[in-house]
Amino acid sequence: MPIGSSVFAQANGFGMNRRLFLRQAGVAIGLPFLPSLTSSQIAVGGQRVASGSKKMVCIGNMLGFHPAAFWPSTKQIDGEGGFTSLQEFEYGTTTQALSEIRDQATLIQGLDHDTKGGHFGIHSFLSGVKQNEAGSMPYGNVTIDQFAAEYIVGQTRFPSLTIGSLEGIHGGCQLSWTKTGTRVPPIPGPEQLFEKLFVDATENDKNSVSDSFALQKSILDVVREQAHDLERSLNQRDKHKLDEYFTSVRDVEKGIAQRRRWIDVPKPEAMITQPQNRNMVQDLPLLYDLIVMALQTNTTKIATLEIGGDFNPADLGIRGGYHSLSHHGQLQERIDALITLETYQIEQFVRFVKKLATTVDDTGPLIDTTTVLFGSGMGDANSHTNRNLPIILAGGNFSHGKLLAFDSGHPHRPPLANLFVTMLQRFGVESDSFAKSTGTLRGLV
Fold first, then answer.
1. Tens digits of per-residue pLDDT, 27-76?
2. Which CATH architecture has domain 55-199+269-427?
3. Residue 226, CB half-sphere, CA atoms under 13 Å: how many?
4. Paired residues of 371 in beta bridges
5. What is the pTM of this model?
């Protein structure tokens, strides 16, 4: 059946699919939603990115932090509009280690994505959009790392690195998502991350990758040629939308061309010997070190790391599972064990930030050019709430050394996505919005 007949048969009552596809020669590419053929629609577009050496690292855990131990004891929010910026405050029990990097980090209280769903809500940490809401958003549930990575394709060997366990709640790490609603599969441990960063491919592997790029290019060529049949049945508005869509296809083509040039470029020399995977507790410092190496060698400018899955309390001498301890039921013994786990996570984060401050690339200390987000999509696992998310921002040459406290009950409280807009702009992406944002976040610049 000709490609046009297949699409129009669906539109005329033969069972409209949620997504339409152009198909030819055994390949298919999904189209945006077009009201001329269906009532659903999706916006397509993009922002420009400025050149530079800015970097971004996002770290999230799956189970949040015990609020009473994480937050400072101060409860006073007396600033204008339900917001105050405090430079004089005491860190909580869990966050005491942040005092070592006080001038390089900011604690942000009272923000979230206004979502519910408990453990399912954590997957929206870096997107601000739950999966079941993705269809109503211009960019679906794309995460900030993948959004930014689209604008630096070709500048580094890897536009982004996603690191996390293949095991755990909901089938492992689900920290990063693309615009098409696809989970970015994680690199599961230091052994695989080291190989990706420093081990050169064999000639056979290089030929295979080259063939893969050629196939992707041919697929784009085929479906673009067939799009003209579809255009004749679209109204003017949808023709414009389809043109925007194929502009994004051309951007993909450019990205393929840019990535191809890395096939024969040798990887940087490794600074350590290849490690073996052990467990998330013991591997966490090494994973942070490898991220620093990836940034320093300009192998990537963007990395995400999820702490969860195989994070085993037994490796810290603690009885019980991480998930079960997070549901402590207000039992002090279990809370104390949970605080020990969470303190370890904060200590390793502090170690990472300090290493960024002492590691230099061709522009200076990495901490000055790297914006680091640390937190979780879970506010309090014991009560399954996704409100008042634990957020720490470090590096990026922001104005740090403070607690930014927002009143969670104030009618004009900003969404967490406002912080993401601020991060994107500091990274160099000329974007005024992200997810459900209402602007940038005050108090950082």
1. 445 555 455 554 333 222 334 434 358 999 999 998 999 999 999 986 66
2. 3-Layer(aba) Sandwich (3.40)
3. 23
4. 56, 395
5. 0.79
* Those residues with Cβ within 8 angstroms of residue 383's Cβ, 6 or more apart along the chain or in another chain: none
Where do the domains of the chain lie? 3-30+204-258, 55-199+269-427
Burial of 338 (0-12, 13-18, 19+ CB in 10 A): buried
Q: What is the dihedral of CA 193, 198, 203, 207, to 10 degrees?
A: 50
Choose among 158, 262, 288: nearest CA to 201. Answer: 262
Give the contacts of 259 (CB within 8 A, at least 6 positions apart): 153, 154, 213
Main-chain dihedrals φ then ψ at residue 206, nearest 5 degrees = -60, -40
Helical pair 332-358 and 280-296, crossing angle rounded to 10 deg: 20
Residue type, 244: E
Q: Which residue has the tokens 């129009």?
A: 8
**How far is residue 361 from each of residues 78, 88, 101, measured CA to CA in Å?**
42, 33, 20
Q: Which tokens is 27 given?
A: 């390949």
Q: Where are the alpha helices (DSSP H) in 118-189?
A: 144-149
Per the CB < 8 A criterion, the answer to whether 193 and 163 are in contact is: yes
- Pseudo-torsion of CA 286, 292, 293, 297, nearest 10°? 170
